[in-house]
Amino acid sequence: MSEPILELRGINKSFGPVHVLHDIDLVVNPGEVTALVGDNGAGKSTLVKCIAGIHPTDSGEVLFNGQPVQIRGPRDAADLGIEVVYQDLALADNLDIVQNMFLGRERTKAGLLDETDMEQAARKTLASLSVRTVKSVRTQVSSLSGGQRQTVAIAKAVLWNSKVVLLDEPTAALGVAQTRQVLDLVRRLAEQGLGVVLISHNMNDVFEVADRIACLYLGRMAAVVSSKEVTHGQVVELITAGRSGDLGIARPEAATI
């Protein structure tokens, strides 16, 4: 196994008296999809926002490419190569695909927007991900389907030479065909050597694309397991009870938020 791209050690996070994350350990490897699963309130979103620099951690260590790093804000995360695709996608409906992909990071030439360069880069990125559902990079986002929007949001994330991509419920509210397109895209990200973290409630999606499954229970990491070595039922038990057979937290009834 190659060196992890991203490693979390003993991450804790509280909001006032509420202890949301308890000593979280997580490893993200290049070329792998790690699914992050857990019930509502388990701490998935908080953990992702800590990685993205939106929430500062209270204690613990973050390593990137084996080196300790400080992520004090979203800019620090982006500079390292960590990109997040949130569930709301954060796309501007009134702009086209190119304008969305470069929003806030526009390329200029002689003081003017370099539209040609940005358009070529957008086409190249979509082609590298084998995206064939988008006919023109100048299509306005408001006219795209849900699956196409998700594709644009993911392409936007990988445009910046990212090394780790975190996807928050990428197949939520998508139809069967669109879900298939997005799952294929998730696997292609891993095949290109990126470390992918997939947050999902859909166990079928998780088992289809994930190499490893990290199961959160009441803010604690119950277990990180290979998707090939566990069943759907075992994962459900881990995220609802914190334990399944020999796997999980020793005494889940003692775990509190």
Automatic annotation (TrEMBL):
PANTHER family: CARBOHYDRATE TRANSPORT ATP-BINDING PROTEIN MG119-RELATED (PTHR43790), SUGAR ABC TRANSPORTER ATP-BINDING PROTEIN (PTHR43790:SF8). GO terms for molecular function: ATP binding; ATP hydrolysis activity. Gene3D superfamilies: P-loop containing nucleotide triphosphate hydrolases (3.40.50.300). InterPro entries: AAA+_ATPase, ABC_carbohydrate_import_ATPase, ABC_transporter-like_ATP-bd, P-loop_NTPase. Pfam families: ABC_tran. Residues 6-243 form the ABC transporter domain. This is Monosaccharide ABC transporter ATP-binding protein, CUT2 family. Keywords: ATP-binding, Nucleotide-binding. SUPFAM superfamilies: P-loop containing nucleoside triphosphate hydrolases. Coiled coil: none annotated.
